[in-house]
Each structure stands twice: as structure tokens, then as C-alpha cells.
Amino acid sequence: MQLTVRGVEVVKSCVDEARQARLVEVVRDVWRQAPPYAPETPYGKAMSVRMTSAGAFGWYSDRSGYRYVSEHPNGAAWPGIPEEVLEIWREVTGLERLPECCLVNFYGEGARMGMHQDKDEADFSWPVVSISLGDDGLFRIGNLTRGGKTESVWLNSGDVVVMGGESRLVYHGVDRIRYGSSRLLENGGRINLTLRVVT
Ligand code: MD3
Ligand code: FE
Predict the structure, then answer these.
(1) Atom of ligand 1 nearest to the CA of 107
(2) Domains held by the chain: number
(3) Residue 82: left (phi > 0), alpha (psi -120 to 50), or beta?
(4) Is the CB of 194 under 6 A from ligand 1?
(5) N vs C: which end of the chain shows fewer Cβ within 10 Å?
(6) Domain that holds residue 129
(7) Residue 124 belongs to a domain with what CATH number?
(8) What angle, rounded to 10 degrees, do the helices at 17-33 and 83-93 form?
């Protein structure tokens, strides 16, 4: 099933349960090689979402600002983007070009992400793809400038979101998760994989 909210394509139940379980395994492998951390915002506040990355570039934030970096804060190269994740990118975009960053977000109980634009990439003509795993997340979609009316949609485990064209630069965020709503992750929480072409 597919719906479009302000140009953002939401493919409900895109990933079946067997594949979701496989994706959780590959995420655990990424976490072993690149442990999740709570990035610090440029304002000096720790984010409630724990993050890490796979790919040539990882998304990073600290008091110097938001940027892509080639190494985990521990100095190691980021692990490669798992093939299972790249397959979903190919399926939903049909592109030859592959993403260079797979941001792995983990939302524990009470975690949220404020409204923002994804604009640290060089070329906004490439789409952004997001894969939701685990607990439901209330995703809010706004406008090309901050403020104004917004629309919200619950993202459930296995849903895939594609932001391309006009929607690529819309403000968006995650207001809250329904902690414990899914049984995919033993200890609850929500994983979101965000795939982006960076250069
Ligand atoms: C880009 N993550 O990491 S999915 C992010 O669920 C982020 O963890 C959220 O926003 C999450 O930057 C949302 C990715 C997403 C969703 C909608 C978008 C990226 C988008 C709409 C326009 C541009
Ligand atoms: Fe974002």
C-alpha cells in the first residue's frame, strides 16, 4: 500500500517480517563495528536519538555543526552499507547510483527528533530513503520553510519512505514513538535507516 503526504511517498509494509528480522541482524552487526552514540547539537545539547552510520560517509554533529565525516568518533572507518539495505534502495528508487551514507537512528523510550531539513548533501536531486523497524513512530511533515501547517503519519515496522523531487527539502521530524508497540526488537525501541547520496 502506498500513500503520498506532501510529496513524500510512504510505502506501507514494504519490507516483510522475515526481511525486517534480517535487517535487525545486519544493524546489530553495524552497531558492533560502529557503536551508536548520542550526537551533540551545535547548541551543546545531547540528542535523544542514538546514531551511527554505515557507508563511505557518516553523519556527525557536535558543537562545530552538522557534517559528514569519513570516520566514526572512535577513529575507525564506517562499516559498509549492508547489501540487504542496498537492495531496498534499488527496489524503491530504481537508481544505478547507490547511497553513500546509511544513517542508523535508534529511538529508545522518550526519544524524538525535532523538525529539520536534510541539507548537508551536495546534490538535492537524489532522493532520500528511510526504512522503519521496530516501534511505531509519529512522523511529522511540514513545508519547505520552517513553520506553517504540518501533517503527521504513523510509521510502522517495515514501512519505507521516499523523499524525492519537491519533497526532498521539506521540514520533517519524529514527535514520539509508541514504545513497546512492536515485538521486532526484544527490548523495544525504533530503528530508522536513512539512505542518502552525499557527494
Ligand atoms: C528528508 N530521520 O535522520 S526518516 C534524519 O525517522 C531523519 O529517524 C527520521 O529525519 C527518522 O534526518 C525521519 C528520514 C526522512 C523522512 C522524511 C524526509 C528524511 C526526509 C522528508 C524530506 C527530506
Ligand atoms: Fe531528516
Answers:
(1) 8
(2) 1
(3) beta
(4) yes
(5) N
(6) 2-196
(7) 2.60.120.590
(8) 130
In angstroms, what is the span from residue 18 Cα to ligand 1's centroid?
24
Residues in Cβ contact with 147 at an 8 Å cutoff, skipping those fewer than 6 apart = none
Identify the three-state secondary structure at position 132.
strand
Interval between CA 181 and ligand 1 midpoint (Å): 21
Given a contact cutoff of 8 angstroms between Cβ atoms, the answer to whether 117 and 170 are in contact is yes
Mutate to test the pocket of ligand 1, among 169, 194, 195, 197 (most ligand atoms within 8 A of CB): 194
Cell of 153: 503519519
* Region label for 91, one of left (φ > 0), alpha (ψ between -120 and 50) or beta (otherwise): alpha
Position 119: which residue type?
A: K
Side chain identity, residue 60: Y
